[in-house]
Amino acid sequence: xxxxxxxxxxxxxxxxxxxxxxxxxxxxxxxxxxxxxxxxxxxxxxxxxxxxxxxxxxxxxxxxxxxxxxxxxxxxxxxxxxxxxxxxxxxxxxxxxxxxxxxx
Length: 104
Hints:
Layout: H1 6-100
């Protein structure tokens, strides 16, 4: 077997140190990218929350409009039924008058 010389040992230690420095640099780069990703995710999440709140507000406005339309429809139905009942009463009383009280 060949023996390691001091220069070989220095070369190995230098290579190990270089790999360690590379790992530290990569670790730092990963942390920076992770921080950027966290910021982007938070910004995206905030946008989604804002859009969701806007949609909820629109849904509430639509529900309020539907409730108002129901109220208006009920009053329209009431007027229509009053007209129908009045018309039926008028026609019925006219028929009764002609059939029973027409002595001209």
